[in-house]
Amino acid sequence: MQASLTHRVLAPSLRRRAFATAALLLCGAGITGMAWAQSSPAAYPTKPVTLITAFAVGSGPDSVLRLVAQKLSLNWKQGVTVDNRPGGGGFIAIEAARRAAPDGHTLLQLDSEHLSALPHLYKKRNFQTLQAFDPVAPLFRTPFLVAVPTQSPWKNVGDLIAAAKKGTVSYGSWGVGSPGHLGGEWLDLEASTQMTHVPFREVSQLFTSVANGDPAWSLASIPSSQGIYKAGKIRYLAVAGPRRISQMPDVPTLAEAGGPAQVDVNSFVSLLAPKGVPAAVRAQIHADVLKVLQETDVREKFHTFAFEPLSWSVEEIQRQAGVKSEQYKLLIQKSNISLD
């Protein structure tokens, strides 16, 4: 009887104590959860992402960026659109991206010349690309080839250099400060020649003119020149670098073709974000883009353009941009090139 009474008296007390303990545990868990939420970045992305590019619709960089955008959209469960802003030496795209909120939902596609040559070409603007933007992910690197008309008497780069030492030889590019221009200046410097640069507004006009022999040659990427190459109107004397490429295995390197071995004309393309994007968001973008670049269909698409997918860290992007900056500074000063 006493035992039963004791049970009836203590049971409510025990229940109240248990409830109090549970409440404290739940409260503690809530505080811990709030602290974790406050110290962790919000899920990314939380809204559609825009990839602004300095390249025109249909160009090689644009084509592969659209494929990367589709893959990221599937992974992120958010829309990812490409916004083409070509022209103005890259500044049209740059200014559009600079105005965006630094939250990672607006990214910018630029090549290494936008990162490394612009400060030297536009000195009066006092603009340093990597002071306004942070690299977030690499995309690809592209080689260039020395292209001449099919009927050109030159059989190799040694013939081209010999002709330039005897008389006037012109080369074309798709604009002042482009890889085609600065690469030609580099070859000119190392070969101790004085060739004449002829800039064009459009790539299609450039290669049509090269096919007609005026200018006498130009540097060319695979995507920009394949149409006229397949039509039999131009041929390639060399890959302007130290390695042959699998897309054109019979085309020799610059050194193999009688040119200066130290010349290595290439351009790399990467994604950047306006300064101020949280480090955790930038790290996630880097990891997600590199994951996309490993997908088989993406690598196959890159291969058709002779684009080499990159797996660089952001520190490596900055280092490579610094190397190119020193190189371009020398070439731009040597030729007194200015776009101010």
Q: Can you walk through the features of this model?
A:
- This protein has 340 residues and is α/β, with parallel strands linked by helices.
- It folds into two domains: 161 residues, Bordetella uptake gene, domain 1 (D-Maltodextrin-Binding Protein, domain 2, 3-Layer(aba) Sandwich); 95 residues, Periplasmic binding protein-like II (D-Maltodextrin-Binding Protein, domain 2).
- It has 13 helices and eleven strands.
- A six-stranded mixed beta sheet has the order 2-1-3-10-4-11, with helices on both faces. Strands 7-6-8-5-9 form a five-stranded mixed beta sheet, with helices on both faces.
- Helix 2 links the parallel strand 1 and strand 2.
- The radius of gyration is 28 Å and the shape is globular.
Report the major sheet: 6 strands, mixed
Tell me the helix content. Answer: 40-55%
Q: CATH fold name of the largest domain, please?
A: D-Maltodextrin-Binding Protein, domain 2
The CATH architecture of the largest domain is 3-Layer(aba) Sandwich
Helix/strand-derived category reads alpha/beta
How many domains in all? 2
User: Could you give the order of strands across the largest sheet?
Assistant: 2-1-3-10-4-11
Distance between the termini: 103 Å
- Overall 3D shape: globular
Query: For the record, what CATH class of the largest domain applies?
Result: Alpha Beta
Mean pLDDT across residues: 89
Q: What percent of residues are in strands? A: 15-25%
Number of helices: 13
Rg, please?
Answer: 28 Å
CATH level-four homologous superfamily name of the largest domain: Bordetella uptake gene, domain 1
The beta-strand count equals 11
The succession of helices and strands, N to C, reads: HEHEHEHHHEEHEHEHEHEEHHEH
Instruction: Show unreliable segments.
Output: 1-40
